[in-house]
Design a protein that fits this description.
Layout (H helix, E strand, L loop, with lengths): L20 E4 L2 E3 L7 E2 L1 E5 L2 E6 L1 H5 L7 E4 L4 E3 L2 E6 L1 H9 L3 E2 L7 H14 L6 E6 L1 H7 L5 H5 L7 E5 L4 E4 L1 H6 L12 E5 L6 E7 L3 H6 L5 H17 L2 E9 L1 H12 L6 E7 L10 H6 L10 E9 L29 H14 L2 E6 L2 H18 L7 E4 L8 H7 L2 E4 L8 H4 L6 H4 L5 H6 L3 E4 L10 H10 L18 H8 L1 H6 L17 E4 L17 E6 L2 E5 L12 H4 L5
Parallel strand pairs: 1-6, 2-7, 8-15, 9-10, 10-11, 15-16, 16-17, 17-18, 18-19, 19-20, 20-21
Antiparallel strand pairs: 1-4, 2-3, 4-5, 7-22, 11-12, 12-14, 13-14, 22-23, 23-24
Helix pairs in contact: 2-8, 8-9, 11-12, 17-18
Length: about 575
């Protein structure tokens, strides 16, 4: 693959006369209101120099121009996945950690996986991995706690993440090595579940509390992180993604990303968000990175000018921070990981520094406080400032929908839970009224705001086409049922904008990318079907990407018909299915 890139100064312009490449005889849906449809494009030095009819583009064909006939295939701008974690999904396996191997394992299956791992990896080292599912333990009438884990393995530390990433189950030795006992205070961004009488830790650590376990463990090895990111972006390119956000990075992860970027293997644009708290893993150079060290990693495809915050927890553990109590007769509204004063000062400070805040807000109370903080930052700093991002946005107050537009805040919806599935129905703990407001793309868009989608892999599948279809249908892509899901669908045209130009806007590059427009980066995907000519239900999620182009480069060519090189389907080879 040609990994050369086009570095143009502000005084350099690509030739308007001759194209290096012309793609013709296609059905180009441009997402450009001035020219919604085109038949051909001309590309030079990584940018579109002509978009229009075949005759218009033919004027840019020279003696050395390569001309490719698309045979009438459908073409659109590349996709943007605005929240994902390939390192969390893949690095544990490449580091040799425990993988239970099932989406909803029973307690017996979790137990057997731990014992098998211990036999295969003798010694006194950590048994660490994923997943257990707290709900399946409840169904089986078993309490997941340190005593249960101790009954399986007690002579070496054991730590297993919940499928939702909202909590971790650990044994007594793990607690001892992490120095967690009855006297350990809860961290602000999480809590330690305790015995109601003795106050002793039960072995369940919620949200940021399990970062204390990660701090006691060796960090993920560099080779595992590099392979995870390399294969993660390969998969994304194969599914048509050209821009993405990796939310939660530390200095080790940035080093891994920089390595594959310098090797010419970063085939998508990446915005990496530095972790503000030690939510999942320690960030030992946090303050140096925020002070300016983050610019060391900057390139045309890598940008670490964002910070990720966990404002609240997850619905599965009922730690999402709500505007009203979780249940009637209870005062519990969930857990706010930061004080409102901390949130206000931090958002204003990051805004003043030009750093994007990506705020984890699963509860409508958390997003309400985040919007208040952005409003305060606008008051203190003046003007619009940075475009900050409300991550997950699982439920939003109707009164706040208009504020996304007014404050230039990105409404990012993730993980992909807006269709009927066991994953989505787990959110029924929210209650009927809140579920009616779940993943409200339409509400934000109708109010003039910008909505984007994130897969939040490994919480849901890394394949963006699943969420794409469900946005348009609010139905299960695989099951034959007439039952619709909560919330309202959006149109195909709206969904395409969510997945393309809105993503570019969320990365601050909408003037350079996100649509097939003259002067913009030559980013596009060629599909095996015309999305406007098929029924959305059962078809969009099955879309295959024949070609992904980024900056005029073929970064994915499924059959080798464009670049001459067949790219093996990495998702079939290395990426676990969910």
């Amino acid at each position: 693959m040609d990994v050369s890139r086009h570095y143009l100064s502000s005084n350099t312009r690509p030739s308007a006369a001759t194209a290096e490449l012309v793609l013709t005889n296609g059905r180009f849906y441009t997402v450009d209101d001035a020219t919604p449809w085109a038949d051909a494009v001309a590309i030079s030095q990584g940018r579109f120099i002509a978009v229009g009819s075949a005759d218009q583009v033919a004027a840019h064909i020279g003696e050395h121009t390569r001309v490719v006939d698309l045979g009438g295939r459908f073409v659109m701008p590349g996709l943007y996945d605005m929240h994902t974690h390939p390192d969390l999904a893949l690095a544990p396996g490449y580091a040799g950690y425990l993988d239970v191997g099932l989406e909803d394992p029973t307690p017996e299956q979790v137990s057997q996986a731990i014992l098998s791992y211990a036999d295969q990896h003798p010694g006194d080292g950590w048994i660490y991995g994923a997943y257990f599912v707290r709900y399946t333990f409840k169904q089986a009438g078993i309490v997941p706690d340190r005593a249960w884990l101790d009954s399986i393995v007690s002579d070496r530390p054991v730590a297993i993440l919940d499928r939702s990433w909202g909590c971790m189950l650990v044994n007594s030795m793990a607690l001892e090595l992490a120095a967690i006992d009855v006297n350990t205070p809860d961290p602000r961004h999480g809590y330690i579940e305790r015995d109601g009488i003795t106050g002793e830790p039960t072995g369940i650590l919620v949200d940021g509390a399990y970062a204390m376990i990660h701090a006691a463990m060796p960090p993920s090895p560099a080779h595992a992180l590099q392979r995870a990111y390399r294969e993660g972006v390969q998969f994304q390119s194969g599914r048509g993604v050209v821009g993405t956000k990796f939310v939660h990075v530390c200095e080790h992860r940035l080093d891994a990303l920089r390595t594959i970027d310098q090797q010419g293997q970063l085939t998508v644009r990446v915005e990496a968000a530095i972790s503000w708290q030690d939510d999942i893993f320690p960030v030992k150079r946090r303050w140096e990175l925020i002070a300016g060290e983050r610019h060391f990693y900057r390139s045309a495809r890598l940008n670490a000018n964002a910070v990720k915050f966990h404002f609240d927890g997850t619905h599965e553990s009922r730690s999402s921070y709500l505007s009203t109590p979780w249940a009637e007769g209870s005062a519990w509204r969930g857990h706010l990981n930061l004080t409102p004063e901390h949130i206000n000062d931090m958002v204003a400070d990051m805004d003043r520094k030009g750093i994007r805040v990506i705020a984890h807000c699963t509860g409508d109370g958390a997003s309400d406080l985040f919007l208040d903080a952005v409003a305060e930052a606008r008051r203190r700093n003046g003007g619009k400032g940075m475009r900050h991002q409300c991550a997950h946005s699982t439920t939003l107050l109707d009164a706040n929908l208009q504020r996304f537009s007014e404050l230039d805040v990105i409404a990012e919806f993730s993980p992909v839970g807006w269709f009927p599935s066991s994953f989505a129905y787990a959110r029924a703990v929210f209650g009927e009224e809140r579920m009616q407001r779940a993943y409200n793309f339409k509400g934000v868009l109708d109010a003039g705001g910008v909505a984007v989608m994130g897969t939040d892999w490994p919480v849901s599948s890394l394949d963006p086409w699943i969420g794409f279809e469900a946005m348009v249908t609010r139905e299960n892509p695989w099951e034959e049922t007439d039952a619709s899901f909560y919330g309202e669908p959006i149109s195909l045209e709206q969904a395409i904008r969510v997945m393309t130009i809105n993503g570019a806007w969320a990365m601050g590059i909408e003037h350079q990318a996100g649509s097939i427009s003259v002067g913009k980066s030559a980013d596009l995907i060629v599909l095996d079907r015309n999305l406007f000519e098929v029924a959305p239900r059962g078809n969009i999620h099955a879309t295959q990407v024949d070609l992904t182009m980024l900056e005029g480069e073929f970064v994915w060519d499924a059959q080798g018909e464009f670049s001459g090189t067949v790219r093996e389907a990495v998702w079939q080879r290395d990426i676990p299915e969910f």
